Amino acid sequence: MSVVVQAIWEDFLKVVHEEVGSRVVETWFKAVVLLRWDAHHKVVYLQVPNSFVKEWLSTHYVPLFESHLGRLLNEKTVHVSFSIAREVPTVQRVETPITVAVSPASSVPLYRPARPMGRSVEAEKHAGHVTNLYQFDTFVVGPSNSLAYAAAIAVAQKPGGVYNPFFMYGGSGLGKTHLLHAIGNKIKETSSHIRVLYQSADRFVQEFIYAIRNNKMLQFEAKYKNIDVLLVDDIQFIANKEQTQEAFFHIFNALHQAGKQIVFTSDSMPHDIAGLAERMRSRLEWGLVADIHLPTLETRMAIVHKKALLHHEELSDEVAHYIASRSINNIRELEGALIRVIACASLAREPISIALAQKVLGEVPEKKQRQVDFQRIAGIVGKYFNYTVKELRAAQRNKEIALARHIALYFMKKLTDKSLREIGAFLGRKDHSTVLHACEKIEQARNKDESFNRTIQHIEADILKE
Ligand code: ADP
Ligand code: MG
Q1: Ligand 1, from 122, 174, 297, 368: best to mutate by most atoms within 8 Å of Cβ?
Q2: Per the confidence metrics, is the pTM higher than 0.85?
Q3: Cβ-count burial of 60 within 10 angstroms (0-12 exposed, 13-18 middle, 19+ buried)?
Q4: Which residue has the higher pLDDT, 98 or 330?
């Protein structure tokens, strides 16, 4: 590898380190070797230690490779190709490199996603279409989700039937998006002619804004009115967007009257979503409303077992119990913990034992689980701008303190599970739409201004520091 390419790789690791943290770098990127850069075909060839790492990197980090390597190599688009290192040179052949498509979303991109990198991977994965990652048979049913599950199955068997619309709500990481995609997958599997569209509400909002600005309302409406099943994820993001609600209202009516199925997910029940027009709220409640709770330990253990099997690993009950009893907030965290254990075992070529799980999960407190509260966020953001927490919370207004406040609001929304109302209240803002507005402004500024983006990254790293 040339010195230049080596330097680029090192730069890349530094950037990734800043973006996703040392744990992810240690687990996934450290063992990756940049083999070569094919400038003609714009392909970066990477070598990974095993198929597990390859699969994980291909499903989760391709956009990250693409954007940063592209920037560092000064190319608009680059592709990455993973190959697995030979473990025993004479027996196994090097696997043929698989090129992962990294071109921008294949459907017409209506806008550039306004999200920070770490999240955009997740969001992009689901953009506009149903992902087959999430199926009914990989969903573990327990008392916490049985109603939502049963209703989802009923909807998938008879779209447009009695549960229309079907509205699921519950905390973050409890399986709402999973069930939503499972419905879509099941319907597509049984009746391939049925047109299914998955869309997150914030994407819907952005598409709508784009359509308005560019005179594309007809196309926009046609896109939504021409489908048979509409799956809308996180409908709460439509709150306070009056015009979008209006447009959505018409789409809803048209689809519903035509007997088309609509499914919603949300973080709270329709009644509790503030900033929703009354007629919109009542529509959301028309059909069946089902909630999803935090699963019991038993269900969490079953989930750990099932997820491990998806990665071709069989765990002992002891290990499953250990992992399930540590991650109690949501299933996303649970999955993250499991994946780290599997990855470390695979990298260290050790069997998965309770000792290994303890080493991986026990010693170092998990970064994501770091409890950040309003006080901490306000303290760190305040320090950065030379304001006390008291000043940030006071009514005083000037441009500079407004920016500091916006940043604080942004992190409170991003890094805690608190409601917009609680966040607004902490900073003395009665109207919680201020919070959303602040978040949007920060997101936009991050996308436009690289140095601002870095500042935000630094502050975030500080907040999450142990
Ligand atoms: P939400 O949309 O509610 O925030 P997701 O549907 O994205 O949560 O779920 C987060 C992760 O947890 C996903 O990987 C999903 O597969 C997994 N998950 C959640 N609940 C279950 C369950 N009951 N069985 C299996 N996996 C689950
Ligand atoms: Mg979700």
Answers
A1: 174
A2: no
A3: middle
A4: 330
